[in-house]
Specification:
Mean pLDDT is 82; it is low at 101-187. The chain has 20 helices and 15 strands. Strand 13 (488-495) and strand 14 (502-509) form a beta hairpin. The protein is globular and about 80 Å long. The strands form three sheets. It has a five-stranded antiparallel β-sheet with strand order 7-6-5-8-9. 38% of the residues lie in helices and 16% in strands. Helix 1 (11-19) packs across helix 9 (218-234), helix 8 runs antiparallel to helix 11 (262-280) and helix 19 runs antiparallel to helix 20 (635-659). The chain has helices at residues 11-19, 23-27, 29-36, 85-93, 104-108, 125-141, 170-174, 192-215, 218-234, 237-255, 262-280, 342-348, 363-368, 413-426, 474-482, 559-562, 565-586, 589-601, 605-619, 635-659; strands at 41-42, 48-52, 56-60, 74-76, 297-313, 318-327, 332-340, 370-378, 391-395, 436-446, 449-454, 460-463, 488-495, 502-509, 528-529.
Amino acid sequence: MSPEDLPPVAPDVLAEAVEQLSARLRKKLDAAIAACAEHATASADGRVTVPFGEDAVVTLCPAPSGAVTHSEQAVCTCLLAPRCLHRAAVLGAAPIADAEPPGGAAESAGREPSTEEDPAPAAGDDLVQAADAALDRAAEAGLEPATGNGGTPGAEGGPVPGGTPARTTGASAAAGVRPVVAGENAPTALTAAQVRAATALWEAAAEALSAGVTAGGAVVQAELLRAAHTARLAGLPRAEAAALRVVRGLRAARQRGEGQRLGDLASAFRELLADAALSASGAAGPGAVGSTRRVYGQGGSLRVFGLCREPVLSATGYGGVATHVMGQDGSRYTVSDVRPGGLARARGVGTASVALGGAVLDHAGLARGGLRIVGATVSPDGRLGAGRGVSATPLRGVDWSEEPVAALFGRPVHDAVVTALDGLAQEDGDRDPGLLGCDVEVVGAAGEYLVARVTGEGPLLRLRPAHPHPELPHAANLRRISGYPGLALRILGRPDPDRAATLRPLAVGPVPGAPYTLRLPEEWLGRADLGYDRLQGSHFPREAPEAAPRGPVTAGPDALADAPLWRVRRLLETGVAGGRRALAEAGRGTDAAALLVPLRRAGLGGAAHLATALTAEADRRPRDAFGRLTDASADGYARAWLASAVHLAAAERALVLASWA
C-alpha cells in the first residue's frame, strides 16, 4: 500500500502525535515514516493496520468521512502508546486531510448552504465535533474564537442578510468585473487572537523556510500544521489553507513526486509568508482573512447565456465540470459540479444534468444555451447556487457574434489581460485568471506551443493546452489546428499569468465573415469546447488560401525568458530546496558576481539590491565567544526572502503584461 492509499489525517491529530514524542524519537521519525506504508493492509470495514515487527501494530479507524479526525482513531499496541514512534510514523505517512473540501459538500453539487437544512461538511460530523472540542480547549488557553471572515456577518454560510450582488454594467461589465456581494469589501478588523495566531504561523513558516526541503522533515511539518490549526481556530482559513499547501509541497518535494515543481513550492511559501505577515501586523485588508464557507447573496432574476464548459481536475482527486455563462449586462457566472472522482468524473460529467433550479439542460446544453433564473443566489466569485428557492427555465442560446457575448471579443487584448490579472491578484486564495476573447490567425506549431497572431497587427500569442492531461482532448485539438496555418479562429481562454503572451484556450469558433475558418456543425452553435469536443477533418476548410511561402515558425521573443530575473528565481528556489545554508553558499565568491552583474546590466537594480540583502542575511549567523548562536531566529531571513520573492513576482508580472502590448 502506498502512502496515498492511507486514510487522510487531520492536521491537529498529526501535530499532537509528533509533539508527544521525545527528542530521541523525533530524530528517528523521518526514517520510520519512509518504511511504514509498504506494510499497511486494509480491511473490509475500512480499518488500516500497519505492523512494526511482532510486538507493535498500529490501527487506523477512520471516521465515516474517511479521515482520521480524532487522536483515539489511531492506536498502537506497544507499551509507549500513544507517545510512541510507530503511531506518529503512520500518521506522518498518511495524506493531510482538508478541514473542508474545496467548495464544501453543498457547493460541490452547486448548492449554497441553507438555513433550513444545514449541509454537513464533507469531512464528516466527526471533524466538526473535533473542531468544537478544539475550540473549547482554545478558549481555556485564552484564544478568542472568531468568525471565518474576521467577524463579517454571514461568513458561516447561507445568504448574507439583505445582501444583494451589485452586478456590473457598461464598460465594467464588458471588462469582466465579477459580481460583488454587498459588504464584501468592508474593512476587516482582526481580533487579538487572530494576530497571535498569525504571528505563530509566521514563526513556524520562517523556520520551515530556513530548514528547506532537505531539513523540512516530519517535525518541521508538524510545527507548521499546529500553527495552521491554531490559525483555523482563530478564524484565519486563508492562512491555514496556505500552510497546508506548503506542507503538501514539502512532502512531495521530499518524496520527489512526479508532479512536484520547486517553483510551485516557492510560490506557496511566498503566499504563506505574505498572508501571515499581513495578518500578524493587524492591518489586513478585505479578503486577507478568507472564509471557511462560500457566501451566497440574493441575485434576483437573471438571464444567462452559455459561453463554454471546461473539465476540472485537481491533484487531490476531485473532478468535474465548470460551465461559464454570461448575463445580459455582461456579468460572468459559473455553474460548477466538482466532487471526488478524478479524471473519470471530469470526463463523464460534461454531459450530466445541471443541478440548478430544476433545469432540464445538461452542461453541454447550457454551454450553448441559456437559462432564465428566478430567485438566483450568487457567490462573490460569480458562482450560481441552487437553493430551494431557485427556479430555472431554458432559453435559446446566443452565438458568439451576438450580444451580449460579442462584447467579450471586441476589447483590446492588452486591456483585457490587465483586467484579468488585476482581478487574479485581488482574489481570495488560488483562482484562475478571468476569461479573455480574441480573434487570431494560426501561424503554426513551434515546439510545445501553437503560435497565432491576434487579428489586426496584434501580438504574437503562444497557445498551450488548458489542461495537459493526455486523456483530455485539449492537446489533440491544438495539434490538429496547428496543421492549418492561416486559419482564422475566435478563441475564448485564460491568459497564463506566469508566461509571456501565453493563452490557454478553452473553446474555439469560426470568425464571422472570414473565408478560411472553422466549419462547425449547426448544433454546436458556433463553438467547440476543447476539453470535451474533438475537432475532426470535416470541421476545417478543405482548400487553403494562397499565401506567400512561410519560413520556420517561431514563437517570437520572450521578454520574460530573456530577462536575467531567472537568476533571482533560482536563488529563491535554492533557499527553498536547501534552506538558509544553501542560499548563503550561493551568495559567496564568484556565484555572487554571476548573480548580481547581469541584473545591474539589465537595469534591474532593485532585484540586485534585494538579492544582495537576502544573501547577506542568510550568511549572518552571529556567535558568542563560545561559538553559540546569539540570534537563532529565522525572522530576518524570512523577511528578506519574502521581499525578494514579492519583487520578483511583480517584475515578472510587468514583463508578462508588456508582452501582450
